[in-house]
Amino acid sequence: MNNSISGPSKFTHGLGVLGLLLLLTGSVMGLTWAPPEQHMGEVSRIVFVHVPSAWNCLLIFTFACGFAVWSLWSGSRKADSYMVASIEVGIVLNGLLLVTGMLFARPTWGIWWDWDVRMTTSLISLIFFGGVLAMRALIDDPKQRATWSAVAAVIGYVDVPLIYFCVRWWRSLHQVQSTPDTMSPGIVLPMRINAFAILFLAIWFLSMRASIERNRLAAQDVDQPDRLLEGGTL
Amino acid sequence: MNIVRRVAATAILIAQKDLRLEWRNRARLFSVALFGLVVLLLLSLAFGPNSDDLQRAAPGSLVVALLFSSILSLSESFRLEREDSALEGLALVPIEPMGLFYGKFLANTLFLLLLAGILIPVTVVLFVVEADARVLLQLTGFWALAAVGLAAPGTLYAAMTSRLRSQDVLLPLLLFPLEVPALIALVKSFGFILTGDPMEQLVSWTKLLIAFDLIYVALCGVLFPFILDEGS
User: Fold this and answer.
1) Which of A166, A204, A7, A52 is nearest to B180 (CA)?
2) Could you tell me if A18 and A200 are in contact, meaning their C-beta atoms sit under 8 angstroms apart?
3) Fewest CB within a 10 Å sphere: which of A53, A138, A156, B226?
4) Helix (H) or strand (E) holding B153
5) What is the largest CA-CA distance in chain A?
6) What is the pLDDT of residue A195?
7) Mutation for testing the B interface, residue in A148, A159, A169 having most B CBs under 10 Å
8) How far apart are CA A141 and CA A144, in angstroms?
9) Is B216 in contact with A155 (Cβ distance < 8 A)?
10) Which of A128, A147, A150 is opposite residue B177, by nearest beta carbon?
C-alpha cells in the first residue's frame, strides 16, 4: 500500500492554467466580440457562463457515477476519492448554473424562480448530492463510507439524464437545447471556448480534491494502523 | 432452482416475516397512521375553512401526508433488524441478499398501501372532496404506483441510514429529492382524478410513474447486496 503524500501532476496543473486562460479569452469574446441575442439583447451574454457550467455539471456528475461504479466494483480508494471530488465539483457547477439561471430568468421571464421542470430537476440534483456528502460526513469507517456513498451516487444519478431530456419530454418554460445551426457563429465559438475552459478547470479542481482525499485517508491510516489491514489501495 | 426463483422465495419469506411481526404488534401502523392524520388535520386547518381552497389543496396535502408518514414507516422497517444484530444474522443465512431486499420492499409497499386505505378517505372528508367509489379506487391505484417507487429507494436508504447516528435527518434528506419526480406525477394525477382531465394528461403521468418504479425497483435490488456486505 502506498501511503506517500501525493498531489496532482504537472499536466493537471497545466490544464488548470490553460482553463483559466481559455475562460478569460472566451469571456472577453462573449462580452465584446459576440453579437447580442436578437430578442434578449445584452443580458443574454450570461449564457457564456450559464450554458457551459450546465454542460459540465452534467458531465462531472456522470464522472461521479462512473467513479461510483468503479468504487463498488473494485473497492479502490482512488475511485472513492475521485467520486467524492466529482460530487463536490459537480455541486459547485450545479450551484453556478442555478444562480446564473436565476440571474438570467429575472430580466427575461420576469421572475427569479419558477417550478419549471428543468429548474426543479437541477435543484433536486443539488440537494441530493449534497445529501450524499452529508451522509459521508456521518460514516467513520472508510470502506463503509465509500460503498454507501457510491450506492447513493448511482441512485441519484438517475436524475441527471432527466435534467437533460426533461425540456424535450414536457412543456417547459425553459427553452429546448439550441444547436450550432440555430445560433450565430459569433455566439457558438465563445460558448465552446468557455465550455472547454470550465471542463479543464473542473478536472484541475477534481484532481486536487481527489489527492487531498487520498492524503487524508493515508494520514488516518498512519494515525490508526489497524485500518491498514482492512485492504483497499491508495 | 434458478436465481429468480430463489430471490422470489426469499422475498416472500421475508415479507411474510415482516407482515406477521407487524400484524402481531400493530404499533407501527397505529402510530404512522395517526401521524398522517395529524398532518392532514393541520393542513386542512391551514388551507381552510373555504371549501374551494380546501379542494384545490387536497391532492398536494394528501401526497405530503402520505410522504411524511412513509418516512416514519420506512425508518421503522429496519429498526427491528438493527436490534440484537438481526440483520447480521439474516446476512449469515444462506439466502439471496437480493431476496432480502425485495422482501423488505414488498412488506413496505403493502404497508404504504394500507396507509393510503386510511388517509385517502380522511382527505375526502376533511378537504370536502366529492369522490365516489371509482375515484377512491383510482386514487388508491395511483398511490400504489407511487408507493412502489417510494418503497424501493426508501428500503435501501433505510437499510443504510438505520445504522447511522442521524437517521431521522438523513433518510428524508436522501429520499425526498429523489422522490420529487414521482411526487409531482402523483400530485398531478390526484388533481386530474379529483377535478377532471380534459386534456387527457393522466396517461403521460402514469407512464412516468411506471418508468420511475421500474428503474428504482431494478437498480435498488442490484445495489442492496453491496450495502449488506459492507454493513454486516
Assistant:
1) A166
2) yes
3) A138
4) helix B133-161
5) 65
6) 94
7) A148
8) 5
9) yes
10) A128
Q: ipTM score here?
A: 0.80
Looking at the whole model, is its pTM more than 0.90? no
Q: What is the mean pLDDT of chain B?
A: 84
Low-confidence ranges of chain B (pLDDT < 70): 1, 230-232
Residue from B160, B201, B228 whose CB has the most chain A CBs within 10 Å, to mutate: B160
Ordered by start, the domain boundaries in chain B are 3-231
Q: Rounded to an integer, what distance in angstroms lies between the CA atom of residue B121 and that of residue A215?
A: 57
Q: Please name each of the domains of chain A with its CATH number.
A: 10-31+43-218 (1.20.120)
> Residues B177-231: pLDDT tens digits?
888 888 888 888 888 887 777 777 788 888 888 988 899 999 998 998 888 776 5
Beta carbon pairs, A and B, within 8 Å = 74
In A, which residues are within 8 Å of B188 by CB distance? Answer: none
State whether residue A158 sits within 8 Å of chain B by CB. Answer: yes
Sequence letter at residue A50:
H
C-alpha cell belonging to residue B1: 432452482
